[in-house]
Amino acid sequence: MVFSLFSEGENKVLCWCFFYVTLAFIILMLYEMHFEKVIRELGGVILSRGPKLCNFVDWRGFKVVYKRYASLYFCMCIDQDDNELEVLEIIHHFVEILDRYFGSVCELDLIFNFHKAYYILDELLLAGELQETSKKTVARLIAAQDSLVETAKEQASSISNIIAQATK
Amino acid sequence: MTMHGMRGLSVFISDIRNCQNKEQERLRIDKELGNVRNRFKNEKGLTPYEKKKYVWKMLYIYMLGYDVDFGHMETVSLISAPKYPEKQVGYIATSCLLNENNDFLRLAINTVRNDIIGRNETFQCLALTMVGNIGGREFAESLAPDVQNLLLSSSCRPLVRKKAALCLLRLYRKNPDVVNVDGWADRMAQLLDERDLGVLTSSMSLLVALVSNNHEAYWSCLPKCVKILERLARNQDVPQEYTYYGIPSPWLQVKTMRALQYFPTIEDPSTRRTLFEVLQRILMGTDVVKNVNKNNASHAVLFEALALVMHLDAEKEMMSQCVALLGKFIAVREPNIRYLGLENMTRMLMVTDVQEIIKRHQAQIITSLKDPDVSIRRRALDLLYGMCDVTNAKDIVEELLQYLSSADFTMREELSLKAAILAEKFAPDLSWYVDVILQLIDKAGDFISDDIWFRVVQFVTNNDDLQPYAAAKVKEYIDKPAVHETMVKVSAYILGEYSHLLARRPGCSPKEIFSILHEKLATVSTTTIPILLSAYAKILMHTQPPDQELQSQIWAIFNKYESCIDAEIQQRAVEYLALCQKGAALMDILAEMPKFPERKSSLIKRAEYSEADTAEQSATKLRAQQQTSNALVVTDQYPANGVTLRISVGQLSLIKVPSMITTENDTSTDQALSQQNGSLSKVDPQPPSVDLLSDILGPFAVEGPPGATVQSEHIAVSGLEGGSDAVDGSAIVPVEEHTNTVQPIGNIAERFHALCLKDSGVLYEDPYIQIGIKAEGRGHHVHLVLFLGNKNTAPLVSVHAIILPPAHLKMEFSLVPDTIPPRAQVQCPLEIVNLRPSRDVAVLDFSYKFGTNMVNVKLRLPAVLNKFLQPIQVPAEEFFPQWRSLSGPPLKLQEVVRGVRPMPLPEMANLLDSFRIMICPGLDPNPNNLVASTTFYSESTHAMLCLVRIETDPADRTQLRMTLASGDPSLTFELKEFIKEQLISIPTARSPAPAPKAPPTAQPTPQIPPNDPAAILAGLLS
User: Which residue range is the domain that position A39 belongs to?
Assistant: First the structure.
């Protein structure tokens, strides 16, 4: 599964994307396309679809499952015989987890903390497959990672304080 | 929430967002890249924090779609940082920036391995995540055993194990030959007992990949899957955090049902009952609810359950429930459900015979063709195409035609192609077919490819009755003021050939026809002018008595074009002018075109091609293959011999290549053509555009009887291959290829033997390609899919696959695309119908080109006799009467077999079992004997019971006496020989010895056996 996300806004249609795992590279090699082009093309297909249509669209022999949240579009590229609704709910599940983490997530949260979004996605999906379905577990794992980073930072600053003190 | 103070990064992102236009953004990014590059150059002064910051910046820039062609080294080096924050960034950025073939990744393998086998579980997680996302061959080689250990380790926590499961899945999917999963059945079964649902979910994904490759090994997992599904469906013991909108992990439910779909059937009655109860519950208990997420999740489960029911081909009752549900779905308001309803109906057509029930929904499906959503319209089109047959073809095609005028442009080409194919396949009469195609051209000329009008020309040419009708019809169209150019082409061709048949009708005198056509000349392009010129020449020839005025008019036109800049037009004009002046000789030269040899519709070929291209395993394709074109049968010029036809189609495509090359030069074309036809005097009055030649005027199109065609194709084909191995349809083909420089991986003969016993696996592999096979049998039909996987990052070109079927198999093979894109897998379905018992083997002649290597291999296809067997247990009270009633040869044959591979009785029983011959225990009182039964399916014998008795000699295991009985003499004989071969040869032998033994003799008819059974029987009885 390829996960990507983009936003419709101003003149920058595609702000950013998650591009991931196995199929992504297959697509890239298949069409010798830079992923920017993939996203641009896919964006064109999806953004041109009106509201109240179904969440699936054919694209280059794959199926794309997408969902719009305000100005953000999340989409996943899947095989023809994958279960579309299941994938649609993976997207929603991801959004719920983001929402819980950022506290009512918005586009800016994701742009300025794109790395965080990657961390979370890595806990949710791996090798294009769903890894964990419990929101609680994902939240716990991400919190643990955050605290590891924080601890390291505190250590670093205390060391640099010591050095600063010593070299005074 | 926490915002780590990465100020530089935030500032940079703000800057980018504040850029007014793309140009500014580009400048800002170039500046930043320059900055990062400089900083990386003097790496010494960089703190880990700074390094991390720059890598994030690079990643952000990369995400925006800019090339980042430096810094990969620095990114990878962060992986070996000792502290978590840097390591984390290193791993994540590496997975995003580098792909699996990047050389820098190799540098990291050791570090990654140390992290994986180390004790720090957070590092283990990071490493597993990266390998799971981008791990390639080298990672698989050096890490797979470690990852396997982590997955099974009882001391690892779930967070590590679930990542290990998916990491292993990736490594296995990418390199199944490297990752050793022998003996994993037990471990998988053990993993399915896992309490942690996260680990279970990941393990289930792994199981799906494993069973999809080889379900045989994983039977022991089946009851466990059913148990898991039951537990979830009944919501027993599922922690709250694993329910999603009140539904116990819908994803795990879906995955479990997916895994179950790879098992061909469920034999254990109680497991089966439990499963069906669960499925019934899902099918009946899923209601539409208000909450959209809950609704989606429950329907995701429901649709997977539907797929599982379809797969297991349950009691008819459940199948009709499914159709009823789908019928409800296609009419609901919610677009997702409507879409999936249509899609699943199409799938259903593929697996079962529900066409009649689905037809009841035709009106609703046609309504969906007008849905505002193009995705839904496409599914409706697929479904209509799939459900079309002779009874509803008229309605459906008419609907498609009507829809064509309003359809959006993206769909018109597909729509018109499908309409054309349906019209051809199910035409109740040919005049209707002509009407449809002309309407298509009229309504959607831009989307009508040349093959569509070529095809109509072929039909008209081959059907005398149709000619006046078609001529009159095209005249009606061309009379209109604005006509599409394709219409001009088809009209010019048909009127040129057949307008004289209309001569007595008002307004159809040669002169009038000419002036109608000539009006269009000014409006058409240079590709159409030659067709018009040909038509003029023909009209002139047919004008009896000659009309001086018309003649001078036409001559004047030829005169004018004699100096045309377009070489093709010029040549036609010069030639026709010269020919016209020859008088009577003109009659011979411009005589009516001969009938076209029958061949598979290029349209259908194209549809198959385009579908294979998208790897779409849709029902439409399957049905397209099941039903050979009706239209082909209408031209009963030649006996419709499916087999020869198929060969010629395959080879025709092979031969196209050189003929295309010659057509590059127009002048040489006609010569080349007429030389190939062996009649230099025949000047082709046809426009020799490349496309035209490749089809209507394909080198063989003008030839005589089809036998000759096939013959000459054979010659030409072997000529192409350097004449080294002339392939004859019935010849025994050596399996190994000697001239290739590319060495196959693994033993081809072994692979073949293995596949004779199982349904899926790898048929052939070399460094460039892997050919997998998956077979599904149903009575005397076998549906086989070849998976051609390109293992490279460059395309494989000149890919050709030809099936050389033995006489007893009817095979329909879709066309293989000429090129397989890098890393892509192409699926080529093959429909096999078993006509009668025989041990002959079909051969796949496969070739491709990679770089300068031309590889050609001939592979036996495992569509062997035992694939048409279905084990059946016959109770004693039925067995003995049958056995007695089949008395003596030729229905009952007995033979003493010597030189048998010594094996204990249970092993022999297993061997028979693996051929789908079922042991009936307890029938024979002698414990040294085996009695077995099976059903054989073929078109000639239908389902026929076969009874087997093997008497072994405990003192000498190398000999045994075998008695075979069935209601068909050739079946008895063939099955006896088949079992004998298997008992003597060693199917899994490592030596190449079986090769001479294994390819069974290719005599299509049962020959006189070397040792006459009657004689043996007599010898035995005496």
Answer: 2-133
Distance in angstroms (rounded) separating the CA atoms of residues B177 and B312: 30
Across the strands, what pairs with B949? B931, B963
Minimal Cβ distance to B615: which of A50, A61, A134:
A61
Q: What is the pLDDT along chain A (168 residues), one digit of tens a residue?
A: 344 444 443 323 333 334 333 333 333 333 444 566 666 777 778 878 888 899 999 887 778 888 888 777 788 878 888 899 999 999 899 889 999 999 988 878 888 888 888 888 889 888 888 899 999 999 999 999 999 988 888 887 777 777 777 766
B4 touching chain A per CB within 8 A: yes
HSE-up of residue A55 (Cα within 13 Å, Cβ side): 26
Provide the total of helices (H) and of strands (E) in chain A, helices listed first.
6, 6
Q: What DSSP designation does B763 have?
A: E
- Would residue B746 be called left, alpha or beta, if left means φ above 0 and alpha means ψ between -120 and 50 degrees? left
Note the pLDDT tens digit of each residue in B828-854. Answer: 888 888 888 888 888 888 888 877 778
Cα–Cα distance, B111 to B86 (Å, whole number): 14
- Tell me the DSSP string of B784-823: EEEEEEE-SSS-BEEEEEEEE--TTEEEEEPPPPS-B-TT
A9 inside domain: yes
User: Cβ B197–A133 below 8 Å, yes or no?
Assistant: yes
B410: its two tokens: 């993206």
CATH tag for B4-258 (out of 3.40.50.300, 1.10.1660.10, 3.40.50.880, 1.25.10.10): 1.25.10.10
CB contact (8 A) between residue B242 and residue A53: no
Compare CB distances from A127 to B166, B197, B198 and report the shortest one's residue. B166
Q: What average pLDDT score do residues B290-296 get?
A: 92
What integer pLDDT is reported at residue B41 of this predicted model?
A: 84
Tell me the residues of chain A between 64 and 103 that have a Cβ less than 8 Å away from chain B: 79-81, 83-86, 88-90, 92-93, 101-103
**Residues B483 and B456: beta-carbon distance below 8 Å:** no
Residue A167 domain-assigned (yes or no): no
For residue B877, give Cα distances in angstroms to B106, B881, B884, B933, B950. Answer: 68, 7, 12, 14, 19
Neighbours of B634 (CB within 10 A): 18
> pTM (2 decimals)?
0.63
The DSSP secondary-structure symbol of B179 reads: S
Structural domain boundaries in chain B: 4-258, 449-597+678-683, 600-665, 717-863, 868-1021
Identify residue B889 by its one-letter amino acid code.
P
Determine the average pLDDT of the residues in B950-960.
83
> Residues of B comprising the binding site?
7-8, 49, 53-57
B129 vs A126: CA distance, rounded Å: 7
Residue A24 identity (one-letter amino acid): A
Domain count, chain A: 1
CATH code of residue A67: 3.30.450.60
CATH code that applies to domain B717-863: 2.60.40.1230
Q: Which residue of B has its CA nearest to A150?
A: B4
Q: Does A149 reside within a domain?
A: no
Closest CA in chain B for residue A93: B244
**CB within 8 Å of chain A, chain B residues 807-846:** 821-824
Among the partner-chain residues A80, A86, A129, the one whose CB lies closest to the CB of B166 is: A129
CATH of domain B868-1021: 3.30.310.10
Query: Which of the residues B167, B232, B251, B378 would you substitute to probe the A interface, choosing the one with the greatest number of A C-beta atoms within 10 Å?
Result: B251
The verdict on residue A147 lying in a domain is no
Record: contact A26-B823, CB cut-off 8 A: yes
ipTM of the complex: 0.86
DSSP symbol at B757: H
Q: How many CA atoms lie within 13 A of B30 on its CB side?
A: 6
